[in-house]
Amino acid sequence: MVDRLANSEANTRRISIVENCFGAAGQPLTIPGRVLIGEGVLTKLCRKKPKARQFFLFNDILVYGNIVIQKKKYNKQHIIPLENVTIDSIQDEGDLRNGWLIKTPTKSFAVYAATATEKSEWMNHINKCVSDLLSKSGKTPSNEHAAVWVPDSEAAVCMRCQKAKFTPVNRRHHCRKCGFVVCGPCSEKRFLLPSQSSKPVRICDFCYDLLSTGEMTACQSARSDSYSPSPKSSLNDVSDDDDDEDSSD
Fold it and tell me: Using one digit for the tens of pLDDT, what is the confidence trace for 14-23?
């Protein structure tokens, strides 16, 4: 089915429309063999609060962006190669339902669909695309993935020292290895995580000690692999900042 659509005029036209919706700031999406599988609005769990994002699933990449004008204009385009993607279902909890994790070596995050059926369709299509890509390339699924960031709203105090309370002056930071919300004194060190950045990134003292001694796998928090958000995440009324990927902390 995908091979038959690859060179069809309808597929080319659909991809061109997506390109135009992202404008000049977006990356070109039309390449030989690429097929637009589907699209839709998903709720992405961001650092400050859950936010609606437009997602486009192609047979080789997953693209998403901020909604400026529904069905007409999007910005802040993000492109994720599907070869590096693994997905895991998330149990329903409170107002956050029909969710799953999208995990890659560079970035991992949770998304939620409007219905259980929509969630099932998204997950099935993503898994099929990933399976087909790996089968064609002969590669194995990636075992490494970035931590899922714990939302700011779930941490009133530092998740490492359990003492420092967060205020407008004492800001929240995120460890890039475990995803925990930590205070400045608990995350003063930097460590090179090549899959995430070409420069050393902020990590907490706990992860730094483990990474420095070579115990890298022990540093990966279980929270990052089976993320279960608190219901209050969806009730946070903090102003709508940019996605956490645009934040330096």
Answer: 999 999 999 9
Which H, E and C letters describe 86-153, residue by residue? EEEEECCECCECCEEEEECCCCEEEEECCCHHHHHHHHHHHHHHHHHHHHHHCCCCCCCCCCECCCHH
Helix, strand, coil percent content, the chain, rounded in steps of 5:
30, 25, 45
Q: Between the CA of residue 145 and those of 124, 141, 194, 195, 222, what are the distances in Å?
A: 20, 11, 12, 8, 13
Amino acid occupying residue 162: Q
Same domain, 133 and 64: yes
Distance between CA atoms of residues 102 and 217, nearest Å = 20
Find the length of the chain.
249
Q: Give the pTM.
A: 0.83
Q: Do residue 4 and residue 102 come from a single domain?
A: yes
Structure tokens at 209: 């000690």
